[in-house]
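Quality-control log, excerpt.
Job 1 of 2 completed; input and output follow.
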Amino acid sequence: MKVAVIGANGQLGQDVASALRTQGHEVAALNHSEIAVESPESVRAALESCRPDLVVNTAAFTNVDRCEDEAVQAFTINAVGARNVAQATQSLGAKLIQISTDYVFDGEKGSAYVETDPPRPLSVYGNSKLAGEFFVRAATPRHFVVRVSGIYGRHLCRGKGSPNFVDTMLARGRKGEEIRMVDDQIATPTPTAEIARQLVALGQTAEYGVYHATAEGSCSWYEFTLAIFDLAGLKVRVEPIKTGDSGRKAPRPKYGVLENAALKRISLNLFSHWRTGLENYLAGK
């Protein structure tokens, strides 16, 4: 199978491209210099040049707080960009995997969200990603809209220009810094390597629709931080704080846990527990 990975130099995109190659698929790795999702002409030209069977769109404006100030840019990339990719993919008769987020929910449910729960984003970022979902679903029937949560991987996150959460905490801990971390935001941190493996498996099916793709279980970011230091053998003081004390501009869902109900329904859920994923990441697996 020939696969075009958009955003192939990003944190998730690099692992997706690697996982596809490991499975013997031919990969066209498209970076921003080769495809600009905000331009329908650029998207059409790039995809027509490689004529893929499957397109995986990992490109996004992911800086949640900057999105609040740069709403036009957020919607241009996350919504209009997704539409451009979906329309070009449909014209080529290819499948599309569109990456979305747990931020399409408001976090008020208090239990894990399934794919059929009504979304209600709190932030510009969440609204722009939800708009992208609707564009994709309207533009092509051969879509997999895949929502992820709390991702971290070995490659730099281009959108934020910084290491992932795990590596950032380890660096700060080794410097002896005291960490302040929110204990009232619950999510499911998930390694990009596991997401990539799941996307490869899903993309080989014709089970189109909306999917949640996260590790099993859940924890607060405070609990996740404690687990990072515990597994790394570091003694670091971590102070629990509330979201209101974090100084973040964009509102975040306090309960962003996703249940992989659709993957389990088709017997294709490949994820481990979040702590196992963290152990594997720290072990270099």
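Job 2 of 2 completed; input and output follow.
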Amino acid sequence: MPNKCATFLFSAAVATVITAAAPVPAAAQAYPSQDVHFICGFAAGSGADIIVRFFAEKMRPLLGHSVIVENKVGAIGNLATEYVARAKPDGLTIYVTGASGVAANMHIFKNPSVDAANALQVVATINKATMMLGVRTDAPWKSAPELSAAMKLKGDKASYATANPTSKVLGALYKERAGLQSIEVPYRTGADFLNDLYSGNIDYAIPDNIQAMAQARAGRMRILAVGAGERMHAAPDLPTMTELGYPMDVRTWWAGLVPAATPRPIVDQLNVWFSQVVATDEARTFLAGIASDPWVTTPDEGQAYFRAQIKDWGDYVRVAKIEPQG
């Protein structure tokens, strides 16, 4: 859990965001006038769906109307992105999603159906997390340097599992910066590689934070490092890849997004409400449980970060040698 200093800084950030957004203009005070739809780009019951439904439940009292979760599944979230970008900009359709994935899709697809940087507006950031470096618990390697030394000896006989674009990027950066020849083995989902990892058919894996922490708690995975540039408050004992000599800062992050033409008073009001939810002890406990840190910004700060991430993903795709689809 965050230390006292981190808690103070986070609380101060929340207060700053909420204060900056007040007083709320009269145009937003009548908002919303009817039920609100939270859009999830992945299937019901998935890790993403669990996060969306948590925030839908917590936002409902603030919105004063029902919050309906709609799962728009397909094309690694692209169908949901397109749906929200083309929705009526009235604040009644809100995309609650991993914004890092939306940024990645701008380069993973040859011809994205929407220009996310200009079609979507970040109303509020929710959290920051990262991918992790993991091995089976009975593996002989207790640290990333020990794993690196062993994988160098194996040469191109070494292998590792990935299951999404961000894990492909972290895996490629680790391979490059550790001087490895490991072969990437891509899987459709993180659950699909677990048997191969635990049986020793795969040497190591790049799981997401939710899967990694769940498997570690169950005693089935040893986490050696995280891909963020600084240690996570939710998992302060885990070293960063950068600390261990493999510099990188590969993050995942969640946000609420709306169509770009949504009136600013509504954007500001949503920022206040999301920020209030993220600041609660319940939300912070929930986020810590999936090894992620709460993150509050203004809409302008969130949008600037979103656009910077889209640019960064152009470099990530090249480093990871990801072949654009479609």
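Post-run check on job 2. Residues 132-226 form a domain with the D-Maltodextrin-Binding Protein; domain 2 fold (CATH 3.40.190.10).
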